[in-house]
Design a protein that fits this description.
Elements: H1 2-40, E1 59-63, E2 66-73, E3 82-83, E4 86-87, E5 96-102, H2 108-118, E6 131-135, H3 145-153, H4 166-177, E7 182-188, E8 193-201, E9 206-210, H5 218-221, E10 226-231, H6 234-247, H7 253-272, E11 281-284, H8 290-307
Length: 329
């Protein structure tokens, strides 16, 4: 009798083990199918080597025993769903619009600059660029007399959503998506006013639009095919802002610190930081994160090269080429 119980128990143990192995194998197969689907999606191409945040919270880089976040990816919202070959309003003939947001002095413009440099677009004539960059700072709205007085005293909040001409931003983005030539204002940070001159933006394959509140307005946010958030340490951002405002914008240290404490920091926490959740890709450490920048550059290269027939180019859209693999062909 004892032997029979032992035999039955052993059989049950074997059966349980088989069931566990079958379950594990099923889970592995389902995971493989899911990952193949993610890699084939436009927003998560194989060249990016990124992973869905529902499975992996961040892409990491290991160095000398330390675990450092390279960049994290978020699921795209419903506005990015694919329908009839069009993803979030993006078709092969539509400029690919990338929004770049982040706190003051987080490194947004530097990240965009590095991307332009690696693509070999920084030294090309504006009318011939296939990738262009626009700053939200150019769209500060004109101030009335009272607001100008406050700005000179350092008590006007330029980090508030109402400080921007959002209607003009929306109009410009729509013109860009329609492939039209558009003109954007030039802004003078010393006088806190627009200049009479403007900058002409020519049609391009990829457009980077950077600013602290690029994702705040739903209408504007919904036009981006991809959204990047540059995430930097608060102390680093403060140090950079102090250096920038005192050296480039002629402001004294006391005024800069007063603005940051009473206006910039509260506005960041209220308006900018909450928009981080809308980002498709979060870039920690800003321009120092060369791994993330290189991945983004590779993705942009693919977009541009696909539009030019694997780099062949044609007609008026052909640009000069470089022997460097990091530049657009």
């Amino acid at each position: 009798m004892l032997c029979q119980h032992l035999v039955l128990g052993a059989r049950k143990t074997v059966n349980v083990g088989k069931n566990i192995r079958q379950l594990c194998q099923t889970l592995i197969e389902q995971h493989a199918v899911l990952m193949r689907g993610l890699r084939s999606a436009p927003e998560f191409s194989a060249a990016w080597c990124t992973k869905s945040s529902s499975l992996y919270p961040a892409t990491t880089h290991h160095s000398r025993g330390r675990r450092t976040t390279v960049m994290s990816t978020h699921k795209l919202d419903d506005t990015n769903k694919t329908a009839n070959g069009v993803t979030n309003g993006f078709s092969p003939k539509t400029p690919f619009l990338i929004g770049v947001a982040g706190g003051t002095a987080s490194g947004k413009s530097t990240v965009c600059k590095r991307i332009m440099e690696r693509l070999g677009q920084d030294d090309i004539e504006h009318s011939q660029r296939r990738v262009v960059c626009i700053s939200q700072d150019a769209f500060y709205r004109p101030l009335n007399a009272e607001e100008s007085s406050k700005a000179l005293k350092g008590i006007f909040n330029f980090d508030h959503p109402d400080a921007f001409d959002n209607e003009l931003i929306l109009k410009t983005l729509r013109q860009i998506l329609d492939g039209k030539i558009c003109k954007i204002p030039n802004y003078d940070y010393v006088t806190n006013s627009r200049l009479e001159s403007t900058t002409t933006i020519y049609p391009a394959d990829v457009v980077l639009f950077e600013g602290i509140l690029m994702f705040y307005q739903p209408e504007i946010r919904g036009l981006f095919h991809m959204k990047l958030f540059v995430d930097s340490d608060a102390d680093t951002r403060l140090a950079r802002r102090v250096m920038r405002d005192t050296r480039e914008r002629g402001r004294n240290l006391e005024l800069v610190l007063h603005q940051y404490t009473n206006l910039v920091k509260p506005a960041f926490e209220e308006f900018c930081l909450p928009t981080k959740k809308f980002a498709d890709v979060i870039i920690p450490r800003g321009a120092e994160n060369t791994v993330a920048i290189n991945l983004i550059v590779q993705h942009i290269q693919e977009i541009v090269n696909e539009r030019s027939g694997n780099g062949s180019g044609n007609g008026t859209h052909q640009r000069s080429r470089s022997n460097s693999d990091s530049k657009i062909r």
